[in-house]
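Quick one before lunch.
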Amino acid sequence: MALALIDLTGELPGSMAPLADQFNRPITYLRISVTDRCNLRCVYCMPEQGLPWIPKGAILSFEEVVRIVEAGASAGLRSVRLTGGEPLIRRDLAALVRMLAAIEGIDDISLSTNGLLLAEQVAELRAAGLRRVNVSLDTLRPDRFVEIARRPGLERVLEGIDAAIAAGLSPVKLNCVVMRGRNDDELGDFAALTRDRELYVRFIELMPVGENLGMQRDEYVSSDEILERVRTVGELEPVFGPGGNGPARYFAFAGARGAVAVISPLSHDYCERCNRVRLSADGRLRLCLFGDYEIDLRTPLRAGATRHDIAELLRGGMLIKPERHHLRLGEAASRMRAFSEIGG
Ligand code: SAM
Ligand code: SF4
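Model of the iron/sulfur cluster complex:
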């Protein structure tokens, strides 16, 4: 099968042909899970207990992550996002940000976090080269926060969001998974946050992962319905988003400083402009959000693979990246995917 080569602007460090999949999509964005562990247990993401964690020795070191990103950058990778699990529980994450920021070709480093530890780490992360952040927040009510995240912490998350704005991270996006009967009565309250502050509130359709299949069937709200309901509190105009790599569609109230968005992995064509691949905490390159399209990078890395070897493995991954995920409402996805990133 021949690889389609895409004419990307700019010269690549090491001048290798840029990564592109069989569907002519340039792959420029890597989401890196730095841990599978988390300090919350959101009902739609992880079971309360009993998850088999990845053994510590199998988790990639920062140096190993950097070697993979260097190889990617030599083949057109431009943008990385640190995620998890909860990335801020990985010790000294700022050191990784600093190392990634020093890689030639990488010009965008972002973070997805639940925000609990953000206030205390944001200054160091910013100084290390972090530019923007997505904070997950599904409710503005403390009691409900405990029900959804199965741990307390709303105050700390709100402090984290304020601290991120104060530290100059931009844009600051909030990711809110919408669940019928659980938080869908807060759509208007979330949308209102965008009127006076430069905040981008992104409503995400509930995805079926792991054990939440029944919940997803009962509580899923489509992005069309979400928009319709937000429109009951104010007229929305389609707008350009604040940049980034996501599949979100943005809308704003007249005169608002921020915007709302919907991310529709199930109901709309989420996959069409896919430019991303994922790296699991234990070094598997995942070519799609769902399905078993993956390549082990850790074994060759630890066996002494060169940057060129890793770049070739990334290139090989392009051959198995599917055109789209084939997930449908009410269908189960593999449990492993509970740790995949959805919201961006
Ligand atoms: N712990 C970090 C956080 O919560 O932002 C990063 C990892 S978390 C897996 C990344 C994103 O995936 C979050 O915005 C979370 O809400 C979203 N997510 C997790 N499970 C989901 C599901 N079943 N459906 C929709 N979004 C989900
Ligand atoms: Fe943890 Fe993020 Fe999953 Fe919530 S969504 S359990 S914060 S990894």
